[in-house]
Design a protein that fits this description.
The protein is flat. The protein has one domain. It has a two-stranded parallel sheet. 40% of the residues lie in helices and 7% in strands. The protein contains three helices and two strands; from the N terminus they run H-H-E-H-E. Strand 1, helix 3 (42-47) and strand 2 form a beta-alpha-beta unit.
């Protein structure tokens, strides 16, 4: 729990995502902007060497 509070889980997730996506450079990557307690993929999306797509959410 302390590692999660210190961001350890998030950093480990980012490292894993970046390593996993590296062989897929230049491929289209679909991502999402995290909300509340969702896993945060933004570091991996920023490191991706290719097109990135995000969903657009319009008003209710």
């Amino acid at each position: 729990m302390a590692a999660r509070a210190a961001g350890g889980d998030g950093q480990a997730l980012s490292r894993h995502l970046i390593a996993t996506l590296t062989p897929h450079a230049r491929a289209v990557l679909a991502g999402y902007w995290p909300m509340r307690d969702e896993a945060d993929p933004r570091a991996a999306m920023a490191a991706h060497d290719g097109p990135l797509v995000l969903p657009v959410v319009t008003g209710k």
